[in-house]
Amino acid sequence: MDQATLIAKLTGAVGADYIHTDPVALRAYNCDALTIYKGQPSAVVLPADTEQVQQVVRLCREAGVPLIPRGAGTCLSGGATPAPGGVLAVFVRMNQILEIDYENHLARVQPGVVNLHLSRETLPRGFHYAPDPSSQMACTIGGNAAENSGGAHCLKYGMTTNHIQGMTVVLASGDAVRLGSDGDEAPGLDLRGFFIGSEGTFAVTTELTVRLTPNPEGVRTMLACFKEVGDACRTVSEVIAAGAVPAAMELMDRYTIEAVEKVMQAGYPKDAGAVLLIELDGLPSSMRPLEALIHGICMRNACASFRAAQSEAERDSLWMGRKRAFGAFGAIAPAYYCLDGTVPRSKLAVVLEEFDRIAARYGLRITNVFHAGDGSLHPNVLFDDRVPGETARAVECGAEVLRACIRAGGVLSGEHGIGIEKKREMRDQFDAATLGIMERVRDAVDPEGIFNPGKILPGGDVEFPLAGASQPGGVARMAAAFSK
Amino acid sequence: MLCRGEACLAPRDGFLIIGEYTDVILSEESERRISVLKNLNTETLRFAQGDIRMERDVTATAETQRSAFNPLLGPLGPDREMIQRCIHCGLCTTSCPTFVLLGNEMDSPRGRIYLMRMVVDGEMAVNDTVLKHLDRCLDCRACETACPSGVRYGSLIEAAREGLEKVRGRGAGARLLRRLLFRWLLPSRALLGLAAAGTRLYQRTFLRPLLLKLGLIPPKLARLEPMMPEVPPLASMLPLPSEVPASGEERCRVAFFGGCLQSALFGDVNRAAVRALAANGARVVIPSSQTCCGALQAHAGDRETARLLARRNMEAIDPSQFDAIVLAVSGCGAMLHEYGELLAGDPAFAARARAFSSKVMDVTVFLSKVKLRRAPHPEPQRVAYHHPCHLYHAMKVRQEPLKVLEAVGNVEAVPLRESDWCCGSAGSYNLTQTELSMRLLDRKMGHIRAAGAPVVCTGNPGCQIQIAYGARERGMELRVVHPVVLLDEAYRAAGFYDGAGLP
Questions:
Q1: With contact defined as beta carbons under 8 Å apart, do A97 and A78 qualify?
Q2: Are residues B241 and B356 in the same domain?
Q3: Contacts of residue A347, Cβ cutoff 8 Å, sequence gap at least 6
Q4: Which of B422, B429, B437 is nearest to B473 (CA)?
Q5: Has residue B59 been placed in a domain?
Q6: What is the CATH number of the domain that holds B147?
Q7: Domain check: are B283 and B221 in the same one?
Q8: Does the residue B64 lie in any domain?
Q9: Which residue of A lies nearest to B115 if distances are taken between CA atoms?
Q10: Cβ of residue B244 closer than 8 Å to a chain A Cβ
């Protein structure tokens, strides 16, 4: 099937209003929130239901053209960046909450439902959807499932995989199958577990049954400020070692505090070297002793100030700073590259020192804001993408950071997924035999490699070019190059 | 082959050509690849360095070409540093009404900034598709509230629209109409009064049924005609007195800004605001040489006129003479609030514009800063409040209007879903993008119906006209009113105005 026929048939499948082939539109979709790699699709479709998805899958397979699923395009590892020339299926129209079963604490949703919208809908009835990535105001549950997203409260409540009971997926054959079950048990192989976190490389999800979590009876949010980031790290490690599991424990370093306070005044002290945002939830009687324990540990580690939010507004403000910290980096640097390596809690302090040394070596700045409770780091390499060569240097610096995490006994990715971004480093993390198993599993599910090629596993022939310097004056510089 | 048209070159691995370029000669191999790529519907062409030769001195030509053809470049174009602040995270998307309606990345704030970025950087030429997506933006600025990086999107889209006017290719008639409307009609109290009087004549007499029946009104206008608000009696258009003393002890001195359409169509709101200000100890000065604020012009890409009017308003009102510059129309308020930015590049006015803007205040903000006198409304009121975008997202005025309503006793505030969402009025959006505007209005009216309040309060004439139209269309009994009017009614009933010579 040639390109024109494929486009015509796709148009027939989803309707002329819901397919884009205009060059301007295609460029708008050439990356997700990781902007350093680009890949331009040949068409973008916005299917309305499972049947349309099935048709799109069949057509792509017939034409031998890759199909890439995309939710809100907030992925930080390039999961929704299309393989060049592929067809991008955006789930923005499949955004209905189909059914809420409060009795069994379940909701049946389409993949394009925005994470926060489900919690907002169920809040009045005393429930929420627990996984809370920082992008939850925009990201979709389908995308969360593909990436097995985490979030601040995953320390206590678990990652996305712990909250998805069942899902309907469309396989490369075009068949729609149901994985998992609506009950608590699903006999046989745990295929649901296989597919969650496969980053759209196995199949396309068209429906999910997710767990709803009852809202806690009470919440206590505390802010502990430290002069030295190392003291904050030790505090984290000691709190968990003492057997306390807060609902969330987030660390922000000096640069992050600077950026956040510059943009939104969340109430973090500007002179602190690090702050810990600690949240407890549950019955007040159970939180009181925990708070005393945590307070004690903070004080033993040279905590400069410690306060608990006195109102819902204050709590929101403290959290807003954390949830929007990444965006705030835009205020202190022209571009940033966010990584998400994970290390054992006890190694936090050492690893952060190592990051400082790496940053110095590359002449760049690295900021840290992360889910400290589970050692899930978010080092951010700040750089200027308009300086020729600096993007490539930032990527190299990032790779070094990830290798430092692996050396410390950690892993490449805590929650953002591997995508394009960390594909190369998979070889640092896993030996050939393990990678071989992963490849065989993928090939068994998607033998022709239709779904989201070029992601997760190293090798393969799909290339995503690194974005070049784009800046005013580009033409002049190029003209200069000509005259040489 | 000699390529022609708008063009751009950017250094990359090899070279990238987008669009076409006058001074580039391509090798045969490249020509062949162009045709292949064109068939694939791709406009990104990659070349090896040897593929391209230049016909003449490129350094000069490329620069001139670029500035000649790139409508978004230059000191008045979108601020490249502000564009850079967008880190493409996508958190804004769900707050954007057009993205939620259409689902297209290009119709989201992130997508639009990306398009602007590519045009500014010369990687993409402006074509109809670019225009379409940038034109669909409401400029409601909900994305600014959502943005974690503090991108001031409004300033970007308005600068882009100013630049895009250069390449739009409007017909002479359309250009003349714009000029008449923006330069002559809106800034002239006399012409606007005449137009209002004519419209009232049309609405109140046999003219309307006659003209409609005879089909003498062009179809496009006939479609928009029902949206027109009922023009009030001419008495309400009379100018306010030049000064109104405070009733009781004078605690401050404020300048009052009326706004052009507001004065013509909602003169009663201005009168209510002035009375309420005076009743709360403000001496209200209404400088007569003030004119249209320039907001509609700025939103529609005519910032040149906006700057002209801004200068006139700053000559009319000397900020150093007043404690505040107060208005009861939030669309103008946001514009006045941003005069400092609008005239930042004008050495003669920059400092004064900053001082001016820092004193601009919505009437509800002013009232919530003073010790506001309380009075019960004579009739119990159930009120839903709709946030005008430029008050909520641009001026970040969120709680103050509700505080004013709280000061009016006998008012029950009814929650309204998506009350911070655009109603679709958005300056002249309901006229230029009628279909999308009506979809937004439909959504708004659905929420208003569900809220079940017989009164909707909102502080912007555009929203008032739009929501009132929505109610008329749907046969809903709904009073749409500025919050300060309810306060005024309560004050009058409580006898606060007795004996005072107020307008």
A1: no
A2: yes
A3: A375, A408, A409, A410
A4: B437
A5: no
A6: 1.10.1060.10
A7: no
A8: no
A9: A28
A10: no
Mean predicted lDDT score pLDDT of chain B = 87
Mapping DSSP onto H, E and C, the string for B97-141 reads HHHHHHCCHHHCHHHHHHHHHHHHCCCCCCCHHHHHHHHCCCCCC
Count CB neighbours of B446 within 10 A: 14
Domain boundary (B343, B368, B393) is at B368
Residue pLDDT, tens place only, B166-205: 888 888 999 999 999 999 999 999 999 999 999 999 998 8
Please list the alpha-helical segments (H only) found in B237-376.
260-265, 267-279, 295-299, 303-316, 330-337, 339-342, 350-359, 363-369
Q: Is A473 left (phi over 0), alpha (psi -120 to 50) or beta?
A: left
**Residues A48-83: tens digit of each pLDDT:** 999 999 999 999 999 999 999 999 999 999 999 999
Which residue of A27, A77, A116 to mutate against B (max B Cβ within 10 Å)? A27
All residue ranges of chain A with pLDDT < 70 are: 468-484
Minimal Cα–Cα distance from B41 to chain A, Å? Answer: 7
The ipTM (two decimal places) reads: 0.92
Does residue B163 share a domain with residue B206? Answer: no
**Spatial distance between the Cα atoms of A103 and A100, rounded to a whole number of angstroms:** 9
Q: In this structure, how many other beta carbons lie within 10 angstroms of the beta carbon of residue A392?
A: 13
Residues B472 and B397 in one domain: yes
Among B11, B62, B148, beta carbon nearest to A327: B148
> Is the same domain home to B379 and B364?
no
Q: Are strands B408-414 and B282-285 parallel, antiparallel or unpaired?
A: unpaired
Q: Is B42 on the interface with A (CB under 8 A)?
A: yes
- Indicate the angle between helix axes A50-63 and A3-14, nearest 10 degrees: 170
Same domain? For B446 and B476 the reply is yes
- Distance, CA of B483 to chain centre: 21
- Quick one: tokens of A392? 């490539």
Cβ of A23: how many Cβ atoms within 10 Å?
18
Q: Are A330 and B87 an interchain contact pair (Cβ–Cβ within 8 Å)?
A: yes
In chain A the domains, ranked by start, together with CATH numbers, are 3-90 (3.30.43.10), 97-214 (3.30.465.10), 217-330 (3.30.70.2190), 333-443 (3.30.70.2740)
* Domains: count for chain B: 5
Does the distance separating the beta carbons of B73 and A25 come in below 8 Å? no
CB atoms within 10 A of CB A70: 29
Q: Which two tokens stand for residue A82?
A: 């299309």
Q: Are B440 and B458 in the same domain?
A: yes
Length of chain A: 484
- Summarised one tens digit per residue, pLDDT across range B313-357 is 999 999 999 999 999 999 999 999 999 999 998 999 999 999 999
Among B43, B91, B137, which would you mutate to test the A interface (most chain A Cβ atoms within 10 Å of its Cβ)? B91
Instruction: Judge: B106–A329 Cβ closer than 8 Å, yes or no.
Output: no
Range of the domain at B238: 234-368
* Distance of alpha carbon B300 from alpha carbon B428, whole angstroms: 8
Q: Which CATH number belongs to the domain containing residue B401 in this structure? A: 3.40.50.1860
Write out chain B residues lying below 8 Å of A33, CB-based: 87-90
Nearest to A327 among B15, B121, B147 (CB): B147
What band does B218 get if pLDDT is binned at 50, 70 and 90? confident
The answer to the question of residue B65 being in a domain is no
Domain-located, residue B74: no
A200-A201-A202-A204 Cα dihedral, nearest 10 degrees: 30
The single-letter code of the amino acid at A398 is G
Two tokens, residue A222: 């505390």
Q: Is the domain of B239 the same as that of B218?
A: no
Helix (H, G, I), strand (E, B) or coil at B272: helix
Interchain proximity B91–A474, CB inside 8 Å: no
- Reported as a single tens digit per residue, the pLDDT across A224-268 is 999 999 999 999 999 999 999 999 999 999 999 999 998 888 889
In this prediction, residue B74 carries a pLDDT of 83
